[in-house]
């Protein structure tokens, strides 16, 4: 329990304006976010190339397996993050959860950086990253919010700083890609580990002085006996799962493809079950049930949008490395560098679309219509990518503009869908499931990644045109349906009541 002096100390910390008008602790969190963004973006951008690069440079996996593993990691990390939010809220507290998680992340990058690590180092790194997700969840965002009272006008500004810093970190693929190209993948992973370690070091150095007791204890702690039981069960579950899967893989009973398909199928059914639980719960009022049900079409749209996004970090990442002419002004740039484009486009297009809604005011489309339009734009991305496969032979190098335009289309779609989706989820959320409804919406990301993992089974060299055509048409169709029935869906969500 906090003493009066500690409470005053925390209040003084919250009133600080030393970091761009914000508390010093927010400065530390921002630096941690910068370091973590660099490490995460840098690792993710080159990981797929490391997986299918020939030994000893890489692991020598097939491109199909590499693409499946990338999608599988995306799906699992998002699902495990849900557990992480629970751990932070009820077991560790946001500060300890964040610190432990970031420390485990450093170890994961070190595993990838070991030249002799091989497949064991990769598996160890992925397990550690998933454990990190299970410890942390959204702790960084939650901890930043604890530095402000609900009425503090600086709160939105703090999250804006975090958003900008995250996108600065998104420039990491240019650096990690260049390092991998020049000195090898292990050196690039080592740089990621160093950046991640710098973030942890900054927190440890400033923790006592800048944070006080803010976020140290969990907000809704479990009783001591239940806490101990939960921790023991979680550790046992992790160890048993790793042991079982290791035996199955070593014995040849389980393959990468089968494992990916099983986990991905589960990832698809989890949000479905969650929707059923919320809608059928006696805690959910009749009108709330209707509103939640009307969110499902938008949720499906976002699942397909995230399917397209995961294409960009898997199959199209391979296309960029092998088929795109990456020599610009006589200098070869890394394929990973292209993954910086989404962050650049997100900042610019997000501002443009946001300004458009401000100008239109009450004349702007309803939220479901925005999601419909955005989803159609997402679908136009893979449809557009059928063209280079139709126009050029398998041995031809194509202009980088194909990838640039692809990213332009899908990020424009994101500018329409991403902010609106979370807003819709918060509007329809039943009173008894306010936070969990946001969690369900976020599951569209893991569901989309899982769908891509399954879709990769149908991807073969030479089948690119029908592959991207089907994905693009299904995504556009989902968006078109929501656009056509946008007013009816909005009414079902209770949005028209708010404007009348």
CATH superfamily of the largest domain: MFS general substrate transporter like domains
The assigned CATH architecture of the largest domain is Up-down Bundle
With strands numbered from the N-terminus, the spatial order across the biggest sheet is 1-2
> Distance N terminus to C terminus?
47 Å
Give me the strand/helix succession: HHHHHHHHHHHHHEEHHHHHHHH
Give the number of DSSP strands. Answer: 2
* Domain unit count: 2
For the CA atoms, what is the radius of gyration? 23 Å
Shape: globular
Q: What's the CATH class label of the largest domain?
A: Mainly Alpha
Most strands sheet: 2 strands, antiparallel
Would you give the CATH topology of the largest domain? Answer: Growth Hormone, Chain: A
Structural class: mainly alpha
What's the average pLDDT? 84
Strand content: under 5%
> Fraction of residues in helices?
over 70%
InterPro entries: Dipep/tripep_permease, MFS_trans_sf, MFS_Transporters, POT_fam
Pfam family, one: PTR2
GO molecular function: peptide transmembrane transporter activity
Membrane topology: Multi-pass membrane protein
How is this structure best described in words?
- It is found in: Cell membrane.
- The chain has 500 residues and is mostly helical.
- It has helices at 4-15, 24-52, 63-92, 94-113, 118-136, 139-145, 155-169, 172-183, 185-211, 224-251, 256-280, 286-312, 315-323, 341-360, 367-384, 386-391, 401-428, 434-455, 464-484, 486-493, 495-499; strands spanning 327-328, 331-332.
- The chain folds into two domains: 9-221, MFS general substrate transporter like domains (Growth Hormone, Chain: A); 268-500, Growth Hormone, Chain: A (Up-down Bundle).
- It has 21 helices and two strands.
